[in-house]
Task: structure prediction
Amino acid sequence: MAQPRLPRLTRPGSTPRTTVRRIPAKTVRETGVLYAILDAGLVAHVAVTGPDGQPFVLPVGYARDGHAVLFHGSTGSRLFQGLAAGAPTCLTVTLLDGIVLARSAFESSMNYRSVMVLGTCSVLTGPDKEVALERITEHLLPGRWADARHPSKKESAATIVVSLPLTETSVKVNDGPPDDDEADLALPIWAGNVPIEERFGRPVAAPDLTGAFDVPDYVKRWRR
Result:
Protein backbone atom coordinates (compact mmCIF):
# COMPACT_ATOMS: atom_id res chain seq x y z
CA MET A 1 0.00 0.00 0.00
CA ALA A 2 1.39 3.38 -0.96
CA GLN A 3 1.95 5.68 1.99
CA PRO A 4 2.52 9.44 2.22
CA ARG A 5 6.20 10.31 2.38
CA LEU A 6 7.19 9.98 6.03
CA PRO A 7 9.80 11.91 8.00
CA ARG A 8 13.04 10.16 8.85
CA LEU A 9 12.59 7.17 11.16
CA THR A 10 13.57 7.79 14.77
CA ARG A 11 13.74 5.35 17.65
CA PRO A 12 11.09 5.57 20.40
CA GLY A 13 11.91 8.15 23.06
CA SER A 14 14.56 9.92 21.00
CA THR A 15 13.04 13.42 20.80
CA PRO A 16 12.72 16.02 23.55
CA ARG A 17 8.93 15.62 23.61
CA THR A 18 9.08 11.84 23.95
CA THR A 19 11.90 11.54 26.48
CA VAL A 20 10.58 9.78 29.59
CA ARG A 21 11.49 11.84 32.63
CA ARG A 22 9.39 10.09 35.27
CA ILE A 23 11.14 6.75 36.03
CA PRO A 24 13.15 6.66 32.78
CA ALA A 25 14.12 3.05 33.49
CA LYS A 26 10.71 2.08 32.10
CA THR A 27 11.64 3.50 28.69
CA VAL A 28 11.93 1.04 25.81
CA ARG A 29 13.76 2.24 22.71
CA GLU A 30 13.41 -0.82 20.45
CA THR A 31 11.20 -0.25 17.43
CA GLY A 32 10.25 -3.94 17.48
CA VAL A 33 8.62 -3.49 20.90
CA LEU A 34 6.74 -0.44 19.60
CA TYR A 35 5.38 -2.56 16.74
CA ALA A 36 4.52 -5.49 19.01
CA ILE A 37 2.47 -3.35 21.41
CA LEU A 38 0.53 -1.73 18.58
CA ASP A 39 -0.06 -5.11 16.94
CA ALA A 40 -1.42 -6.54 20.20
CA GLY A 41 -3.82 -3.67 20.90
CA LEU A 42 -7.31 -3.16 19.53
CA VAL A 43 -8.28 0.33 20.71
CA ALA A 44 -6.27 3.55 20.57
CA HIS A 45 -7.14 6.89 22.14
CA VAL A 46 -6.62 9.94 19.95
CA ALA A 47 -6.45 13.48 21.33
CA VAL A 48 -7.57 16.46 19.30
CA THR A 49 -8.56 20.03 20.15
CA GLY A 50 -11.97 21.22 19.00
CA PRO A 51 -12.68 24.53 17.25
CA ASP A 52 -13.40 26.20 20.61
CA GLY A 53 -10.13 25.05 22.17
CA GLN A 54 -11.72 22.22 24.17
CA PRO A 55 -9.54 19.07 24.06
CA PHE A 56 -11.20 15.72 23.37
CA VAL A 57 -9.95 12.14 23.51
CA LEU A 58 -11.54 9.71 21.05
CA PRO A 59 -11.40 5.89 21.23
CA VAL A 60 -10.76 4.39 17.78
CA GLY A 61 -10.15 1.00 16.27
CA TYR A 62 -6.88 1.02 14.38
CA ALA A 63 -4.24 -1.02 12.58
CA ARG A 64 -0.51 -0.65 12.16
CA ASP A 65 0.69 -0.49 8.56
CA GLY A 66 4.45 -0.59 8.56
CA HIS A 67 5.68 2.56 10.27
CA ALA A 68 2.24 4.21 10.51
CA VAL A 69 -1.07 3.78 12.33
CA LEU A 70 -4.33 3.79 10.38
CA PHE A 71 -7.74 4.73 11.78
CA HIS A 72 -10.98 6.23 10.54
CA GLY A 73 -13.99 8.34 11.52
CA SER A 74 -16.99 10.13 10.10
CA THR A 75 -16.70 12.98 7.61
CA GLY A 76 -19.38 14.67 9.72
CA SER A 77 -17.12 14.74 12.79
CA ARG A 78 -15.60 18.16 13.40
CA LEU A 79 -12.79 16.48 15.31
CA PHE A 80 -11.91 14.18 12.40
CA GLN A 81 -12.18 17.13 10.06
CA GLY A 82 -9.55 18.80 12.22
CA LEU A 83 -7.28 15.76 12.05
CA ALA A 84 -7.73 15.62 8.29
CA ALA A 85 -6.78 19.31 8.09
CA GLY A 86 -3.49 18.65 9.88
CA ALA A 87 -4.31 19.40 13.52
CA PRO A 88 -1.58 18.03 15.82
CA THR A 89 -2.56 14.94 17.73
CA CYS A 90 -1.41 12.43 20.32
CA LEU A 91 -2.37 8.75 19.97
CA THR A 92 -1.93 6.29 22.82
CA VAL A 93 -2.32 2.53 23.21
CA THR A 94 -2.12 0.85 26.62
CA LEU A 95 -2.14 -2.88 27.35
CA LEU A 96 -2.85 -3.67 31.00
CA ASP A 97 -1.06 -6.85 32.06
CA GLY A 98 -1.62 -6.97 35.80
CA ILE A 99 -2.05 -5.31 39.17
CA VAL A 100 1.00 -4.97 41.41
CA LEU A 101 0.24 -5.18 45.13
CA ALA A 102 3.09 -3.74 47.15
CA ARG A 103 3.10 -3.69 50.93
CA SER A 104 2.41 0.04 50.79
CA ALA A 105 -0.36 1.72 48.85
CA PHE A 106 2.15 4.24 47.51
CA GLU A 107 4.31 1.59 45.84
CA SER A 108 1.37 -0.44 44.49
CA SER A 109 0.97 -0.06 40.74
CA MET A 110 0.16 -1.82 37.47
CA ASN A 111 2.12 -3.84 34.96
CA TYR A 112 1.53 -2.43 31.50
CA ARG A 113 2.86 -1.82 28.01
CA SER A 114 2.14 1.59 26.50
CA VAL A 115 2.82 3.59 23.35
CA MET A 116 2.44 7.32 22.72
CA VAL A 117 2.58 8.76 19.19
CA LEU A 118 2.87 12.47 18.39
CA GLY A 119 2.35 14.00 14.97
CA THR A 120 -0.12 14.98 12.28
CA CYS A 121 -2.25 12.74 10.08
CA SER A 122 -2.42 12.36 6.32
CA VAL A 123 -5.74 11.59 4.61
CA LEU A 124 -5.87 8.45 2.49
CA THR A 125 -7.94 8.39 -0.68
CA GLY A 126 -8.68 6.10 -3.61
CA PRO A 127 -7.10 2.63 -3.56
CA ASP A 128 -4.99 3.54 -0.49
CA LYS A 129 -8.18 4.26 1.43
CA GLU A 130 -9.75 0.93 0.47
CA VAL A 131 -6.62 -1.01 1.41
CA ALA A 132 -6.46 0.86 4.74
CA LEU A 133 -10.06 -0.09 5.54
CA GLU A 134 -9.18 -3.70 4.80
CA ARG A 135 -6.14 -3.57 7.07
CA ILE A 136 -8.12 -2.06 9.94
CA THR A 137 -10.82 -4.71 9.52
CA GLU A 138 -8.29 -7.53 9.39
CA HIS A 139 -6.48 -6.27 12.47
CA LEU A 140 -9.68 -6.17 14.51
CA LEU A 141 -11.50 -9.08 12.84
CA PRO A 142 -8.97 -11.44 11.20
CA GLY A 143 -10.45 -13.18 8.19
CA ARG A 144 -13.59 -11.05 8.05
CA TRP A 145 -12.78 -8.84 5.04
CA ALA A 146 -13.09 -11.73 2.57
CA ASP A 147 -16.43 -12.78 4.11
CA ALA A 148 -18.21 -9.46 4.71
CA ARG A 149 -19.78 -6.95 2.32
CA HIS A 150 -17.28 -4.23 1.50
CA PRO A 151 -18.09 -0.53 2.04
CA SER A 152 -20.36 1.02 -0.59
CA LYS A 153 -19.42 4.24 -2.38
CA LYS A 154 -21.80 6.12 -0.09
CA GLU A 155 -20.32 4.55 3.05
CA SER A 156 -16.78 5.22 1.87
CA ALA A 157 -17.63 8.85 1.06
CA ALA A 158 -18.91 9.28 4.63
CA THR A 159 -15.63 8.00 6.10
CA ILE A 160 -12.32 9.77 6.69
CA VAL A 161 -9.34 7.41 6.79
CA VAL A 162 -6.06 8.79 8.09
CA SER A 163 -2.50 7.63 8.51
CA LEU A 164 -0.37 8.78 11.45
CA PRO A 165 3.39 8.15 11.01
CA LEU A 166 5.30 6.53 13.85
CA THR A 167 8.12 9.05 13.65
CA GLU A 168 7.85 10.58 17.13
CA THR A 169 6.96 7.96 19.70
CA SER A 170 7.47 6.92 23.30
CA VAL A 171 7.27 3.38 24.68
CA LYS A 172 7.01 2.50 28.36
CA VAL A 173 6.82 -0.94 29.93
CA ASN A 174 6.35 -1.85 33.57
CA ASP A 175 6.61 -5.48 34.60
CA GLY A 176 7.88 -7.60 37.43
CA PRO A 177 7.22 -7.82 41.17
CA PRO A 178 6.50 -5.02 43.67
CA ASP A 179 9.32 -2.63 44.46
CA ASP A 180 8.77 -2.13 48.17
CA ASP A 181 10.88 0.07 50.38
CA GLU A 182 13.33 -2.00 52.39
CA ALA A 183 11.70 -0.78 55.62
CA ASP A 184 8.37 -2.34 54.52
CA LEU A 185 9.67 -5.82 53.71
CA ALA A 186 9.07 -7.13 57.23
CA LEU A 187 5.45 -5.95 57.39
CA PRO A 188 2.91 -8.80 57.76
CA ILE A 189 1.22 -7.93 54.45
CA TRP A 190 0.88 -10.09 51.34
CA ALA A 191 2.64 -8.68 48.29
CA GLY A 192 2.76 -9.83 44.68
CA ASN A 193 1.15 -9.59 41.25
CA VAL A 194 -2.33 -10.36 39.98
CA PRO A 195 -2.13 -10.99 36.20
CA ILE A 196 -4.92 -9.68 33.97
CA GLU A 197 -5.85 -11.98 31.10
CA GLU A 198 -7.87 -10.97 28.03
CA ARG A 199 -9.82 -13.54 26.00
CA PHE A 200 -12.61 -13.87 23.49
CA GLY A 201 -15.85 -15.42 24.70
CA ARG A 202 -18.20 -17.81 22.94
CA PRO A 203 -19.69 -16.27 19.76
CA VAL A 204 -23.38 -15.33 20.01
CA ALA A 205 -25.43 -15.33 16.80
CA ALA A 206 -27.39 -12.20 15.86
CA PRO A 207 -31.10 -12.56 16.75
CA ASP A 208 -32.09 -11.69 13.16
CA LEU A 209 -29.77 -14.26 11.57
CA THR A 210 -31.83 -16.45 9.25
CA GLY A 211 -30.83 -19.83 7.88
CA ALA A 212 -28.39 -22.41 9.16
CA PHE A 213 -25.05 -20.71 9.68
CA ASP A 214 -22.12 -22.14 11.56
CA VAL A 215 -19.67 -19.84 13.32
CA PRO A 216 -16.95 -19.20 10.70
CA ASP A 217 -13.72 -21.10 11.20
CA TYR A 218 -11.72 -17.87 11.22
CA VAL A 219 -13.76 -16.66 14.20
CA LYS A 220 -13.19 -19.96 16.01
CA ARG A 221 -9.45 -19.44 15.57
CA TRP A 222 -9.43 -16.05 17.29
CA ARG A 223 -7.29 -16.06 20.42
CA ARG A 224 -6.32 -13.38 22.92
Summary: The CA atoms of residues 133 and 161 lie 8 Å apart. The radius of gyration is 21 Å. Residues 1-7 have pLDDT under 50 and may be disordered. The chain has one domain: 24-220.
